[in-house]
Amino acid sequence: MAIPKYNELYDPFLTAISDGKIHTAKEVASTVANILQLSPEDLAEQLPSQRQTTFANRLNWAKTYLKKAGLVDSPKRGTYIITTAGSTLLHSDVAITNEFLESNYPSFAAFVNRTDDVDTANDTASITPSDTQTPEEQMDALHKTINDTLADDLLAEIMQQTPVFFEQLVVDLMKAMDYGDGFKTKSSGDDGIDGVIHEDKLGFNLIYIQAKRWNPDVTIGKPEIQKFFGAMMGPPRVEKGLFITTAKFSKGAKEYADAQHIILVDGQKFTSLMIECGLGVSVQKVYQLAFSKLPQLCFAYVFLVQLYLFKLYSPLVHDLPIFVCHNSTMKTMRLCRKKVVFT
Question: pTM of this prediction?
Answer without folding.
Answer: 0.52
